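To: structure subgroup
Subject: Chain for Friday's discussion

All,

I'm putting the inputs and outputs inline so they're searchable in the archive.
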Amino acid sequence: MQAASYSEKEPSRFRRGQSWKINLFGKNSDVATPEPQAFRLDLNAHQKLDSHFHIVDQFQVFIAGSGTIGRDEVRLVTVHYADHHTGYGPLIAGAQGLSYLTLRSKTDAGLVYLTTPDIREKLRPTKRRHRVSEPVTLSIDPVLRDRTEVSVETVIEEQPDDDGMNVKVIRLGPSMTTRAPDPSASGGQFLIVLNGSLIFEGAIYTPFSLIFVRSSDDAPMLQAGESGLELMVTQYPREDDWMKSIQAP
C-alpha cells in the first residue's frame, strides 16, 4: 500500500507543452513497469489531445473545468475508464480549461495515437472496455459535517465479464470510520480523497491525495477527519495475461 499527499506534491507542478502536470506516483516513462503511476494534468483552454490508447488499464477522474472525451461531456466529478490498448478521445478542454487525475495500476510506456502508421502491429488482445460515468456531486461543507451515517454509492457499476472493475464513492461524517472495499478480487485500487480529509496511518490527507491498494493488501480502514470525508474508490479489473506480463525490466 502506498500513499501520496497532494498538498506535498502540488508545489512541484511544472509546465509540459500547453499543459501543467503534477506527478503523484511515479514519473514519465517510455518503458512499462509494475509500479503504480498517477498524476494531475491541467489542460489549457480549448486544448485538444487527439484520440489514442495506452498499454495499461487506466482511470481518469475529472476534477475541475469542463470538456469532452469523444462524444461524452466531462466535468467535476466524472470518471472515465479504458482498458489497455483501447482507443478513446479526442479529449478537448472547455473555455476554462480541464483538470483530471490519471490513475494507472502499472506505469505506461507513453500514449499511442490512433493515427500512428502500422498501428495494428502495436495492438494486443483486450476486452476494449471504455466507460464514462455520470457526474458525482460533492457535499457542501455544512452538509458533510452534519452527516451521521456512512454512505456507499456506485458510480460505475460492474457489468458481466468486467472482472471486478467498478467505481464507488464513500461518504462519512466527521471522525467516522469504515472499511474500504476488499481488493482481493481486483487488479488493485486507487482511493482518491475528493472532499474533507482522510486520516490514514497517522497522517492527514486532503483533496486530491491518493492511496494505492494492491490486490494482495488488506482492505484499509478509512477514518474521516474533523470535517468529514468523501472518497472515491476506482477498482481495476483482475489482470489479464498482458497486464500480468508487465514486470520489472
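Points worth raising on Friday:
The mean pLDDT is 96.
The chain has two domains: 8-132, 141-235.

D.
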